[in-house]
Structure formats: C-alpha cells, structure tokens
Amino acid sequence: MTEAQATPQTGKRVLLAKPRGYCAGVDRAVQTVEEALTLYGAPIYVRKQIVHNKHVVRTLEAKGAIFVEENDEVPEGATVIFSAHGVAPEVHEQARARSLRAIDATCPLVTKVHHEAKRFAAEDYDILLIGHEGHEEVIGTTGEAPAHIQLVDGPEDADRVTVRDPDKVVWLSQTTLSVDETLETVARLKKRLPMLQSPPSDDICYATSNRQQVVKEIAPECDVVIVVGSRNSSNSVRLVEVALDAGARAGHLVDFASEIDDAWLAEARTVGLTSGASVPDELVQEVLAHLAVRGFADVEEIVTADERLTFSLPQELKRDMRAAAAGARS
User: Which of 14, 73, 125, 165 lies at a CB distance of 3.0 to 4.6 Å from 299, suitable for a disulfide?
Assistant: First the structure.
C-alpha cells in the first residue's frame, strides 16, 4: 500500500506486524503460573519475573503469585517456579536444599542451548556465548559450564576473545538477540578463529527471528514504529533497533498506550506497530484504540509467518494435575 492509498479522510494508517506478541515459550510459562495457582492455591512463588513484561507480572501478582529474586526468599517447603529464561544448576540444588517444590518453566528453546553447552563442555570445547552481560538467560546458560564458557557481548567483544585451542571452539547464543548483529558477531569471530563451529541448529528462537523479519518488512514505510514491550525485555528492545536499522524514521518502546507521546505522531502518516514475545495482545489492541482516536484508524496487518508451535506444560506440574484429576474422580 502506498501513502496515496491510505485512508482518504486522514491520510493516516497503521501497519500492524504479524507475528507479534506471545511466543510458545512465554505462553507456556504464564500458563504454568496460572495452573499452579489453581492446583496448589496462593501463594505461589516465582523466582525472577516469569517473563519480562510489567503487565503480565502485575496480573499474576493480583492472582496470588509472589515474585522473588532468589530461592532463599521462598519459605521452606513452598512451591517455586523458575522463569522462562532458565536457571543454572546451582539454583536447582538450592531449591532441593530448602525442600522446595520446584517447577521449571524454562522455555524449551533455552533448554536446548543449555544441553548444547553441557555437551560441548563435556567434549572440552571452548564455548563462546554471544549474549548480553547480566541477562538471566546468559547467567543460566553460563552456569551449565562456567569453566568452558566466555561471554561475547556484541561484535566489538569478538576481538578480545582468547581460546585454548582455535581448532576446538564453538559459538552459542542467547535466544533473543538481533539476528543481524549476531551474524555480524559470528563473522568477526570467524576472522580470528576460522575453525569456529556453529551450534547444531540456530539458537536464536523462531519467534525472535519472525518478529524481527516482519519489522524489517514494514519499517521502510514507517514514520514511526511503536514496539509494545518492557525495557528489560531483550527481544522487545531489539525490535526497536531492528526497525531503525531497517529504515524507520523513529522507533519507541512502550509498556502501555498511555506512554505514547503525541509529539511522536504529529508529523507521521504511517505508524508501524508490533510487540515483543512476552506481550499479551490486549496491550496492542489498546495502542490501536489510542492511535485510532488520533486519526490512525486504517489498519493493515502485514503477515510474514504463521506460527503454530506450542509447548506442553512442565512435567512436574502435569504429573500433579493428573494426580489431582484422578483424586477428584475417585
């Protein structure tokens, strides 16, 4: 659609990205907390934010979830859920030491990276983990093999890497990175380490890749791209960066429609709209309503992928749900 084809009344339009919002791992993690609250009753403790989104955390808190930073804040014998970002083995050990009922809501795609780290460490590889320092996913993956893993935080870090054997080194990555920046980092690493091996399959998750791809499609036509997501959400922050790199004139990250500054829209004719992988679609609908009031009533959904992947609930939760159901029938 060209600018001339936009709504004749206002000349303003919204390009709505799809896929957007919840991925399978986030959906599974949020559902895990909800099902645990139903099954065991409140309170249910959650170590770290279950997913990086303010609205989701507040909603679960209202239902009886208590978010803590570490296991020692959980009363002995209580139920604790580990977030979608994954944890190091020592976190599981701490839970056992406190007799906690631990439910691991780690996204299966993050778990895959953990398994890769353990396998390559067992084969005595140096592992270059591409990711952001301090991110919970990076901390959890590093904890699987701390003696073998060193962090590479972006292309500039590639030049500082040292390895024991340049013929026995592999790269892995955080699942929520910019695809393009990760490829740039790998290219820089391979200039210094030509024998650098790649993971058996792409570590950046399908949802992160898909959300970035559709933003690349719409960004060149957009005066401003609005990404709904929280500032501690890596994949949401990346979407703003991807939009700007792909040609959007401006890009902004907001948790809620109320955070949109009308000055962003003053000269805009085309607004792009998407959301991070931990954002419920109701927040996007609120932004659409906010934009409609300001003349952006014509909405075209741009679709670049059809996501159908789902993940089953954690085994320990499903086991207790089956036992409760059997007890109710007897």
Answer: 14
In order, the DSSP letters of 157-207 are GGGG---S-TTSEEEEE-TTS-HHHHHHHHHHHHHH-TTPBPPSS--S-HH
As given in the structure block, the two tokens for residue 236 are: 């949401």
Tell me which residues are annotated as active site: 137
15 contacts 223 by C-beta, under 8 angstroms: no
What is the rounded (10 degree) CA torsion for 109, 114, 115, 120? 130
Residue 2: what pLDDT?
42
> CA 320 to CA 324: how far, in whole Å?
6
How would residue 114 be classed by pLDDT, with cut points 50, 70 and 90? very high
Rounded to an integer, the average pLDDT of 8-12 is: 71
CA separation for the pair 162, 179 (Å, rounded): 24
Total Cβ atoms within 10 A of residue 195: 11
Q: How far apart are CA 173 and CA 166, in angstroms?
A: 19
Is pTM beyond 0.85? Reply is: yes
Query: Under a CB-based contact definition with an 8 Å cutoff, are residues 44 and 33 in contact?
Result: yes
Buried b (16+ CB within 10 A) or exposed e, 4-41: eebeeeeebbbbbbbbbbbbbbbbbbbebbebbbeebe
Gyration radius of the chain's alpha carbons: 22
Position 10 scores a pLDDT of: 66
